[in-house]
UniProtKB/TrEMBL annotation:
It comes from the Bacteria. InterPro entries: DinB/YfiT-like (IPR034660). This is DinB family protein.
Amino acid sequence: MEKNSQPQDINVEKLLRHWLGAMKFRFTVAISGTASDFASFDADYGVRTPIEIVRHISQLLQTCCSTIAGSPRVRLESKGWYEEAARFYEIVEQLDQAILQFIPEQSVVENLVQGPLADATSHIGQLTLLRRLAGSPVAYINYSQATI
């Protein structure tokens, strides 16, 4: 496939919102059907537990919200498994709204993509791996065919 000779403008808002939708979908797949004891699954070797990972993901996304809106960063307190999952969805919604309200500069978008957004996406993959190690693997899914 040849590269198009015309440069394409990237709609940053659309791309970031799609990324959030994909993360939300993957997160839902990763935690659906898990029992509350999965939250404390210990894979050993210093690996974070699922509940610690979910809190960290939410913290990363909260940092994105603060960065985009120019507001102070908030340190998230620990919650229970179901509350942590609910908080993830709330913060995704807050971040989506921040993206709609504030147009970040290109350098800010690049930093968010290469930093907290990529990190959060990786951690969602860790949840999927931990499910397999805990004996409750996620069924096969073609993520590229998912409706986002």
